[in-house]
């Protein structure tokens, strides 16, 4: 027997209050209702990958789903469903996180908002426990909130990035909530200090040496030795004239057929 969705109250007013005309920064709405060219469809697909995966490598892309979406055989909601049930998403988010954290990731990526409260995480975690992964994804995509905000043809996006009376909007959930929890980040060696070291050694374009700058030849100059070349000194007393100078015998000249008196 499956457990129905437990009741919870939206405790975050940011998701229930209208934005009062404040535009959302860094928010571009992608919909198949307005896209006709292959380039625009490719931008929509990339936006869906960024929303669900944050970044999709070449081996993470679902080529079959992309082809079906380009040919309008499936809707954007079906494409999002396929990404949520893909091996990449299951391995990266479901297998390496608890049900509570997995629910948090899905609400942020699918519904485009932060979790209201711990009660909402518990309610959706019960759905994962009773209906499994596919049942949970189906409940999330069939929810009234998803259909009202995104429908069948709109790629989910991070809502309410700009808040009234605030100069800085919300931090994107891709940065605020990493893909892995603290345990798996420690196992994988995150965060990596290599990127930070690269930033410290970065030099702006104005400070970089230009063509003809002596600094470009510094390494080549360091490769030369400091010792000067010494000329070889040979005494004439040590040269054997008889052995080194070629000698021509007169008998060889007179016996040569080409010799003429």
From TrEMBL:
Keywords: Antenna complex, Membrane, Phycobilisome, Thylakoid. Its main location: membrane. It is found in: Membrane. One of its GO terms (cellular component) is phycobilisome. The keyword Membrane applies. The keyword Membrane applies. Gene3D superfamilies: Phycobilisome linker domain. Residues 8-187 form the PBS-linker domain. One of its GO terms (biological process) is photosynthesis. Belongs to the phycobilisome linker protein family. This is Phycobilisome rod-core linker polypeptide CpcG.
